[in-house]
Amino acid sequence: MPIDIDIAHVARLARLRLSEEDLEAYGRQCRDLLEHVARIQALDTEGVAPTSHPFPMTNRFREDLVTPDSVLDRGEVLAQAPSTEREFFRVPPALEDD
Amino acid sequence: MAPFTVMGAARALRGGAVTSVQLAEQVLKRASMVEAQVHAYLTLDSDGLLQAAAEADEALASGGGRGPLHGIPIALKDNMATRGMETTAGSKILAGYHPPYDATAVVRLRRAGALVTGKTNLDEFAMGSSTENSAFGPTRNPWNTDRVPGGSSGGSAAAVAAGTAFGALGSDTGGSIRQPASLCGLVGAKPTYGAVSRYGLIAFASSLDQIGPLTHTVEDAAVLLDAVNGPDPLDATSYPGDLPRSDGRLGRGLEGMRVGVVSDLGGLEAVEPDVDASFRKMVAAMEREGARIVDASLPAAPHALSAYYLIAPAECSANLARFDGVRYGLRVDGATTEEMMSRSRAEGFGPEVVRRVLMGTFALSAGYHEAFYGQAQKVRTLIRRDFARAYEGCDVLVSPTSPTTAFPLGDRTEDPMSMYVSDVFTIPSNLAGHPAVSVPIGLDRRELPIGFQVMAPALGEPVMFQAAEAVEALAGFDTRAPYDPGFGLRGGVR
Q1: Residues facing B80 on adjacent strands
Q2: Which pLDDT band holds residue B480 (cuts at 50, 70, 90)?
Q3: B176 an active-site residue?
Q4: Pairing relation of β-strands B258-262 and B292-296?
Q5: Could you say which residues from 236 to 275 on chain B have a Cβ atom under 8 Å away from some Cβ of chain A?
């Protein structure tokens, strides 16, 4: 089954800034792989429920307790960030100027 | 003779034949001899290991240290968070990352008394079957350094095979513990999904990922697994109930056990003749030992590989969204947040990761979700049904672990599909969430190890290890062969 994949659009969705050359190569590889795996579309799955998880699980709730295991040290966390300001992560402008 | 297994080292330590410092020194001496060739480790924490070993000896001398792994050096795959110790997942995007917390499996391993040797190499974010996708260079197979150790837990396998750790933890999403165990002549077990907490395991495909042991013996694997498994409030997908003891049925042999040989696991045409012959010989030997050999069928299994290569990339594309240059890891600057993120990710991810993120993003995108991801999840249901039907007639299922023995470096890097088929026998258990273990049973004509896979239903670890231990005894395979104390790697100087 031929796969129509707009690789530049997919790369944008995935937040990957790739060169034209890379886009072309990845697009070809993804198309080949997807055409291979798309064979499962021929299987009859009428009335078959999807498995999203190996075991039937429902949400499990626990008390939202503050324990030493569940709280990270803020200084240790911020020390890993490429850029911080006071107790915040610093990023370039999120909104472009009009 | 120096101990080489986890239990051997534990007995020697308790009996006073060795100290933990001596075990640590043994590991570090071997590492100094073989690491330049093997490159199993991304971080070898010599100082931390020696200090922890000295503390373990002190504890033992003062009557403490009752943990089953007390004083034993164990290696960790570098996709498990270790507080203050660099954790990269084999990716440039995480180079220099020092997690502010420990993975639950690491906490439990230490609580059982184990000492962490360091962090082992892997395919970037555990995506691959040869450890060649590491951003920090490949690991080589201690049995033959021209060949890959398998992957993605290739560093963990190579470290144990070369004697630079007594055992190791790896992770298995589609075969990433069992296939490298097979290629490196070791035991490697993927437990039931949820048996071991995934908290602190850098996520690849959340519905498939599972931590498990790589060891010299089946007993070691069971002990290591029981040290780290169990429910965890920090992982909502960890199995909430009591788990049976993994070593609960060891030593019971094969008498009366119903062993299913799967005729249609998929890709059987690609099985190397030596692997096939070795596998059949073992099945015959099991029958002589009292096992009842039955034919088993998993009709949907030939589609498992395709379903996997839709589900795993889809989940990976979502999981890897967190690597965006904001909170940790590599940042490449840009005029806007989006530009910074897109540049950081393109620069930080290697080709296989980019490929899978793109595949997964596409498979989940509007208009294609149902045809690709949705259909793959339905195939997953068909595979689970097949397993359920097969286990009505047998206690365990068996197959070769990998269609081939260790392949040369560079052999499959150009063609992704040729690499993907390495996992054709291991993937079905991940899709079903079932446990499976690889046991070494012999060598092929090139003197490369061959692995035998034992699969069991969910929570069937006791019967799985029972069968695996019997296979181990029948094979009489010497897992120490690659390492010669006088010369370092035996076949490895190339």
Answers
A1: B201
A2: confident
A3: yes
A4: parallel
A5: 236-237, 239-240
